[in-house]
Amino acid sequence: MSIKLKHGLWVIVADGEKALFLRNQGDNKFPNLEVVQEMAQDNPATREQGTDKPGRYNNQGPRSAIEETDWHRLNKGRFAVDIADRLYKLAHRGEFDAVVLIAPPQVLGEMRQKLHKVVGDKVQAEIPKTLTNHSISDIETLLQAA
């Protein structure tokens, strides 16, 4: 995979709780990613969100517990929808011609399912990595190497 870091390319770096919307103000040889927008979601661990005891099946035989809802995972999915919606609005306004998505594989999959065709057609590359806690220069280096 070769990524052309042309001027104006957007790079979205996301995980289940944070997303950076970056725009390349440089070029392929000297990328200069600048933060356009940051999105964040407060998504504590499920144990901090759910307080109910697991439900029980009330059947004739032995009683068994129902698996507790994974609120943390559900919120990650909702955040992927929020990112996809934001990208659609930006694409609809003509803010970008090409975009690179960088996210952990599960979040990338959720985003891919939710992306509008207008945005999907502009996706130049997808990188399945967690880079939200990396510096902008680290992200630039990774993109140049890709």
Number of separate helices? 5
Strand order of the largest sheet: 3-2-1-6-7
The residue ranges in which pLDDT falls below 50 over 5 or more consecutive positions are none
CATH structural architecture: 2-Layer Sandwich
Going by CATH, what is the homologous superfamily?
eRF1 domain 2
Mind describing the biggest β-sheet? 5 strands, mixed
CATH class label: Alpha Beta
* Percentage of residues assigned to helices: 25-40%
Gross morphology is globular
CATH topology: Nucleotidyltransferase, domain 5
Fold and architecture overview:
With 146 residues, this protein is an alpha/beta fold. The chain has one domain (10-43, 71-145): Nucleotidyltransferase, domain 5 (2-Layer Sandwich), CATH 3.30.420. Helices cover 34% and strands 24% of the residues. It has 5 helices and 7 strands, in the order βββαββαβααβα. The strands form 2 sheets. Strands 3-2-1-6-7 form a 5-stranded mixed beta sheet. A two-stranded antiparallel sheet has the order 4-5. Helix 2 crosses helix 3. The termini are close together. The model has no long low-confidence stretch (mean pLDDT 83).
Short structural summary:
The chain has 146 residues and is α/β, with parallel strands linked by helices.
What is the topology?
Layout: E1 10-14, E2 18-24, E3 33-40, H1 46-49, E4 56-57, E5 64-65, H2 71-92, E6 99-103, H3 105-114, H4 117-120, E7 123-128, H5 136-145
Parallel strand pairs: 1-6, 6-7
Antiparallel strand pairs: 1-2, 2-3, 4-5
Can you give keywords for this protein?
alpha/beta; five-stranded mixed beta sheet; 24% strand; 34% helix; 5 helices; two-stranded antiparallel ribbon; 146 residues; Nucleotidyltransferase, domain 5; globular
